[in-house]
Amino acid sequence: MTAVFRDARIAFDLDGTLVDTAPDLVRSLNAAIAPDALEPVPIEDVRAMVGRGARALIRRAYERAGREIDDPTLEARLDLFLDVYRADIAGQSRPFAGVEAALERLRSAGARLSVCTNKPAALTEPLLATLGLAGHFERIVSPEHVPAKKPDPRHLAAAFGETGSGRVMVGDSEPDVLAARAAGAPIVVFEGGYSEKPAGDLGADRLFAHFDALDEALAHALSRTS
Ligand SMILES: O=C(O)COP(=O)(O)O
Ligand SMILES: [Mg+2]
């Protein structure tokens, strides 16, 4: 099975795909909305609110409470969120079970790995470094590095880099699937991640429930396109 990975470009989403960041995201989000006396958002709800960046996460917390937020307040709450989050970015966040072993296997089989995330670079880099994951990736592409973020396919194209023997995205939510479709690349979706819609409704080429099963899902997706 491993021949299909030689020189393949595999781009990974971060929040909800590589790392279970929800506990630290919810703690920081609830600190950021506290000045406006919003009820704390429960962690299960946050899992359906992540995927379109930090600003969107805060806006969604206000929408959920039926409250309006003006732009200057949003920027102030974003600053607070970023300060709280950055101060203990990997307090409870951990790679999902089997992630490190899967990254090792794919690299040993010759795959070229990247991260394609809507998480701001100032958060992505310390998170991956703190968890010891950064060294697996040839490219780590946050929204600041590209003209537009996922679902825009230019974000994913930047993560893939030059054409390899095949290209595939691994993600957990709709922006990932839309970016892959628009880039003409297959996508496999992690069922344990964060998504507004059920993973099975996103239109993935293949779903996987544990990283031990990632290689098989990727091999299937790659063999259909190369
Ligand atoms: O920060 C977010 O909202 C999403 O990040 P992701 O693209 O890695 O899922
Ligand atoms: Mg995600």
Automatic annotation (TrEMBL):
Function: Specifically catalyzes the dephosphorylation of 2-phosphoglycolate. Is involved in the dissimilation of the intracellular 2-phosphoglycolate formed during the DNA repair of 3'-phosphoglycolate ends, a major class of DNA lesions induced by oxidative stress.
Organism this protein belongs to: Marinicauda salina
Signal recorded as keyword: no
GO CC list: cytosol
Pathway: Organic acid metabolism; glycolate biosynthesis; glycolate from 2-phosphoglycolate: step 1/1
UniProt protein name: Phosphoglycolate phosphatase
Listed InterPro entries: HAD-like_hydrolase_sf, HAD-like_sf, HAD-SF_hydro_IA, HAD_sf, PGP-like_dom2, PGPase_prok
Protein EC: 3.1.3.18
Lineage: Bacteria, Pseudomonadati, Pseudomonadota, Alphaproteobacteria, Maricaulales
Swiss-Prot/TrEMBL catalytic activity: 2-phosphoglycolate + H2O = glycolate + phosphate
One BP annotation, GO: DNA repair
